[in-house]
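ok trying again, last paste got cut off:
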Amino acid sequence: MSSPQRSQSTKEAILEQACKIFAEKGYRGATHAEICSAAGANVASINYYFGSKEKLYEAAFILLTERMEERHPLDGGVPSEAPAEERLRAFVHAHLRRLFDPDLVGGRYRIHMLEITEPTGLLESILSEELARARALLQDILRSIVGDTLSQRDVEWCELSIIGQCFMAIPNRDPGGGPRKVFRLDVTSVDALTDHIVSFSLAGVREIHRKRQKEGE
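nice, full thing came through this time. structure:
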């Protein structure tokens, strides 16, 4: 193996191990020595290949995010010109598939949750941009359903209701099992839960739309 190939292999190994160790121990709990040992690399390799532990943390989260978006894109592969109802179903389905994907939950999700409970601030811009893209997509779908009848506040509250339903499927470390256990949710529930959330949400959105139209008469 040539030197450039060895260099790339070492860099990739460090990044893969960083994904696992940051997910398990968080940014503060992970060490250069542990990550490099797991990757079979010299302890100085993180600074050599990534510049710093902070940059490695960002790179690991970006890699996990890219894998998530490749496996479960939020638009579900449905084009923007498709019917709004179809786009909404694809959006909800993608959210649920992400939450029930063991690989994603095992890595990226844990890092994200650790950033909520023990924030470092290092991923703030990445998470903010991701949230903005997801919100823009869902609001565009909602506008396609109701047109300009609803105020921005109405649209945002409809968005809140839809996402709130999806979040009931978030994994929970509570001994009681959280919503998943209470409502008997698992990966086999994804399609049926998607149908329910979409049907329930469309009915609610259309009822708000009807009320606003009536108020405007």
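cool. The chain has two domains: 1-71, 72-217. The chain has a mean pLDDT of 91.
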